[in-house]
Amino acid sequence: xxxxxNLIVEGKRIDGRxxxxxxxxxxxxxxxxxxxxSAEVRFGxxxxxxxxxxxxxxxxxxxxxxxxxxxxxxxxxxxxxVDERKAPGPDRRxxxxxxxxxxxxxxxxxxxxxxxxxxxxxxxxxxxxxxxRVTGINAASxxxxxxxxxxxxxxxxxxxxKINGTLIVDLNGLEDNNSECDMAVAMMPSKNEITLLQxxxxxxxxxxxxxxNYAIENCKKIYELQKKTIKENYGSV
Length: 237
Ligand code: ADP
Hints:
Low-confidence stretches: none
Helix content: 25-40%
Number of helices: 4
Strand order of the largest sheet: 3-4-5-7-6
Number of strands: 11
Distance between the termini: 41 Å
Mean pLDDT: 96
Order of helices and strands: EEEEEEHEHEEHEEH
Oligomer: single chain
Structural class: alpha+beta
Bound molecules: adenosine-5'-diphosphate
Radius of gyration: 18 Å
């Protein structure tokens, strides 16, 4: 965690944003014809495609759960998504992020309505420039919704952090790599329930609460964009 590089100059960040600005966000659904549900989400230069399938009967059968379905999430960075080619295939980080994203999405899915089945979500990071897990959660939630998976709410996610002593929203890659602290938050906005809260670094209690408020406020903005994207394509949420 480097703190010696100055990424806030005269109150502005290196990409011209003020500390609490999100990057430009683009969302599309139905981007893949063969996936049951799919979505592409861009937060600045971070580009993610998520595809969702299910519920469908789970094989091999010993993996089935009698009382509920299971959700499987696979996070993956394509080799050309980062500066230096990333070796294809799972690594420790992608296994951890797959689990973290599953935990963030699970509370929103009516798994108990679909015993013995699986719902699968594939999150492919096409270009990484910070905050890929939260961008991935936003895309996965859209893909599940447009796949017709019954959900309590959409899941909306946002990153926040601290850099050069300033609290910021939606970290890009350079900011992430040089932050004093970063936090990933996912929530079901209409239920006001947080489904993921991860923090790396050190903050005092006041800063934690302030950052959490920024995250919630921006998750709600992202939620509105998600709903708008679905409505524009499918008429209703
Ligand atoms: P998140 O992407 O959710 O913020 P991390 O904190 O693990 O998760 O990663 C921060 C950023 O570091 C990523 O968004 C990406 O820009 C960069 N990064 C991650 N893994 C690699 C890698 N193998 N090579 C180059 N950059 C990477």
